Amino acid sequence: MNGIAHIQLSVNDAARCLPFWERFLNFLSMKTLIKSADTIYCIGSRTGILVRAAAPEHRATKFDQTRAGLHHFCFRARSNEDVVAVREFLRGEPDVKVLREPEVGPWAPGYYSILFEDPDGIRVEVNHVPGRGHFGPEGQLGGGKGPLGKLQGT
């Protein structure tokens, strides 16, 4: 495996979501490859994100992260400062709801992240984990207990 090639999202409100996603992905230094009235596809950092309007018969269905399917996805930042820069970018996005301000979390040694929802309610996280994370000496896969202790099944 060499990462995730692309993620495709379907949104109800293309008029609000597509411009947000293009601005956000361009802010993350991704380049717009495809752009139409119902689709935006940006690539960069070994990743592609395609966002398109949901089929008309499904547009009344709101995103629900507790249903089967996508819960959220997370971009990996290079530094804590990059996570803070994302927060600053989001201040200018009135249709975005920040759920968790940048903070240290318990998921891996040094885990620092922000969590927000796009205009349709799709949850997105941006995180930075210093060093080798779970593979480092403090991490669970590096021999340490990790910040959460041993996970179930390990």
Report helical residue fraction. 10-25%
Shape: globular
Secondary-structure-derived class: alpha/beta
Note the beta-strand portion.
25-35%
Number-wise, the strands total: 8
What low-confidence regions span 5 or more consecutive residues with pLDDT below 50? 150-154
Architecture per CATH nomenclature, i.e. the level-2 architecture of the largest domain: Roll
CATH class of the largest domain: Alpha Beta
What is the CATH fold-level name of the largest domain? 2,3-Dihydroxybiphenyl 1,2-Dioxygenase, domain 1
- The CATH superfamily label of the largest domain reads 2,3-Dihydroxybiphenyl 1,2-Dioxygenase, domain 1
Count of alpha/pi helices: 2
- Radius of gyration in whole Å, from Cα? 17 Å
- The N- and C-terminal alpha carbons lie at a distance of 22 Å
Quaternary state, please?
single chain
Largest sheet: 4 strands, mixed
> What is the spatial order of strands in the main beta sheet?
1-4-3-2
Number of domains: 2
Order of helices and strands: EHEEEEHEEE
The average pLDDT value, as a whole number, equals: 88
